[in-house]
Amino acid sequence: MKTINFFIEIKSGQQPIIKIANMVIVALGQMSIHDKVFKTAYFLYKNESIGFDTYNKEKSAIELANHILNYSLKDINRFEKIENPDINYSRPYGFTFGLQFKEAGKKVLSLTFKLGSNSNNFIGTISISKDLNRDLNWYKYVIDSFVQTGNVKCASARPNDTMYLEQCIKLYRFILGFITYFSNDYGLQIPNDLKDIEYEHISNGKYLVLKREDFTTNEEIYEAHKQRLLNVMEEIKQRVPEYGF
């Protein structure tokens, strides 16, 4: 079975740790309603991971904020010379941290977060296990849980393929996935009539859906859909030159 990766670009803006934690917990809480794998998150430290519940919004947000602060504390003390920062602390280049999720005791998903900075904020996949057997609608639900916070600029559930990603990153400003989201203030006018694309418009943006049915177990079909994505990105580049490099 082929796996799919997340990449979610978050809008820029310096934010305090507690506001970052609130946004993440609101999304995880929504996701946990749909899938219990998100009911407990494990904060990734260098040599260990510490679990915490995600469904008690206020308590969970404070707990996550304290993990982010503790993880960043040495860096803050050393480079910013702040001795006793609290969870209301912010800095121009934000905070980076990782969360892991387990199913039946097995690590099935690890995500990296870089949030609260003046540029280049994102959520991405560190690893995703083939044991996490979910359909494409699940990936859309995860993306939509972050979209509903109002902080997402664009997002995609894209092929977990290094060659594909390396090829695309040199050519296009944002790599499309089998499911892609663009906010209304993305900055480029992505056409509403691209070939082979199904559209779903919501109040703050639109989804571009290549395929809803699961095709990850058929390698030939999976590769064919990857090629379709390349064709769509090339069409966008031809019609919106700023989309390309």
Structure in a nutshell:
By secondary structure, this protein is α+β, with helices and mostly antiparallel strands. It has helices at residues 17-34, 57-80, 136-147, 162-169, 219-239, and strands at 4-10, 40-44, 49-53, 93-103, 106-117, 121-128, 152-159, 179-183, 198-202, 205-209.
| Strand residue content | 25-35%
Topology as a string of helices (H) and strands (E):
EHEEHEEEHEHEEEH
* Biggest sheet layout: 10 strands, antiparallel
Low-confidence stretches: none
The neighbouring-strand order within the major sheet is 3-2-4-5-6-1-7-8-10-9
Helix content: 25-40%
How many strands in all?
Answer: 10
Tell me the span between the first and last alpha carbons: 33 Å
Count of spatially separate domains? 1
The computed structural class is alpha+beta
**Any idea what the radius of gyration is?**
18 Å
What overall geometry do the principal axes of the alpha carbons give?
Answer: globular
Q: Mean pLDDT, rounded to whole units?
A: 93
- How many separate helices? 5
Account of the 3D structure:
By secondary structure, the chain is of the alpha+beta class. It has one domain. Helices cover 34% and strands 29% of the residues. It is built from five helices and ten strands. The chain has helices at residues 17-34, 57-80, 136-147, 162-169, 219-239, and strands at 4-10, 40-44, 49-53, 93-103, 106-117, 121-128, 152-159, 179-183, 198-202, 205-209. The protein has a ten-stranded antiparallel beta sheet. β9 (198-202) and β10 form a beta hairpin. α1 (17-34) packs antiparallel against α2 and α1 packs antiparallel against α3 (136-147). The longest helix has 24 residues, at 57-80. It is globular, with a radius of gyration of 18 Å. The two termini are 33 Å apart. The relative contact order is 0.16. The mean pLDDT is 93.
